[in-house]
Amino acid sequence: MLIFIICITLLVLAYKFYSPFVERQAGIDKNVKTPQARFADGVDYVEVHPVKAFLIQFLNIAGVGPIFGPILGAIYGPIALVWIVLGNILGGAVHDYFSGVLSIKEDGKSLPEIAGRYFNVYAKGVMLIFTAMLLFFVGVVFIMSPAGLLSNLDYFKGTILANNTFWVLVILAYYFLATMLPIDKIITKLYPIFGLLMIVMTVSIGVALLISAPQLPEVGDIFAYFDHSHYNNDLLEPNPDGLPVWPLLFVTITCGAISGFHSTQAPIIARCLTNEKYVRPVYYGAMMCEGIVACVWALAGIAAFPGGYMELKSILDLGGPGMVVNQVATTYLGVAGGIMAIIAVAIFPITSGDTAFRSLRLTIIDAFNIPQNVRNRLLVAVPILVIAYFMTKIDFTLIWRYFAFSNMLLSTSVLWLATKYLFDRGAFHWIVSLPAIGGTSVTVSYIMTAGIGLGLPQPLSQPVGIAVGAISLIALILAHQKRKPVKSEAETES
């Protein structure tokens, strides 16, 4: 129990004490007009109250990511909690914060446009490819997973509602509306409610686990995965030494720790904030809350089942993380938990999928400078959703592998973009450049050995990743030493 409480406390303390330091480096101007005031169009640039903005951002980035990923990562034991907290504080929250800062300071633009501004047209092109690819994969994944769940509910057996294609078309129809309509027609009305529901569900599950869970971890269990003391070797099949923490744990648990997808959602809310001072509570705050959600569900995987990790693995093998959510929610919260479980694995993914396609529309419109009108929105949105429908016919696991890869690559790219922003300002860039180096190491390690990458032997992963990280650090130190001062410390902190 103590390790979980320490993790939550660290996340809260980081927001209280570390995030103001991060904010001072960003050059926030509370007096400047935001993009919402300068470009109000009634569609995307619409004023949203900061509390609503926080709840929308929280739901946009969360979905099922901080639920499913930590459940899968719980196989690694309490070290998963350590990664969530360190990844969130040192990487994810800073990544999300600067995604918001960069977008609100660049007229609410999407990532590729910002990359072109701070680097060059080639960086813009590369960022456009990976941003579009990630948004598209997220959208497709979050059509397939809720459609699969809804069509398999016992309540619908023997009816048209048991047809997967029916739910795919229903979800696509909703995505079309959410992508096309002004943000204040659906998103600002429904998403704060669902965001509150996720908070209530998380708190309820967390309290119930702390009171009743049979396998609560102790501080001494943190490194149990490495000496195999928290399970028997059957859990490790087909690899008797277990799946390597580096880099697979970092790829398995992204949402809650650090996720490139979050940066693609930044422009949606950056176009709606009425003051730059709200960037920290909305973006950093939403990521801190997602870290808490991830810790709760990692704890559920670690502690909720009497049979321990072997029971967790058997449920995962039988029905994936969605079944784990259902078992935990119904066991610890009863009927109300069952209802929450259905909402969690069916509704929450949809709330990320629709904003993924909306962000993709914004990204394409920004990249090609397409005027915002109904006709052009239709010309962009309809082909995207038609292609998405046919993509749902492809193997889900294949799409998920590419999603995981592009997610990791994009988060690292955004950290390097934030490094350039702070470097040019003469500010303390190490808060983003060091996480960028870590992300580069993990990304290279994964690409070296993954099936969708080079497919090289696993033992090469760690040394190559560390070598690339070391080279990146040396290059950054040399660049830092050559940097000419741009602003005084007083100007930086103002």
UniProtKB/TrEMBL annotation:
UniProt KW keywords: Cell membrane, Membrane, Transmembrane, Transmembrane helix
GO terms under cellular component: plasma membrane
Protein's GO biological process: cellular response to starvation
Protein name in the entry: Cold-shock regulated carbon starvation protein A
Taxonomic source organism: Shewanella benthica KT99
Residue stretches spanning the membrane: 75-98, 119-144, 164-183, 190-211, 243-261, 282-309, 329-353, 374-392, 398-418, 430-454, 460-479
Membrane topology category: Multi-pass membrane protein
Top-rank taxon: Bacteria
Family: Belongs to the peptide transporter carbon starvation (CstA) (TC 2.A.114) family.
Pfam families for this protein: CstA (PF02554)
Residue ranges occupied by any CstA N-terminal domain in the UniProt entry: 1-143, 154-315
Subcellular location(s) per record: Cell membrane
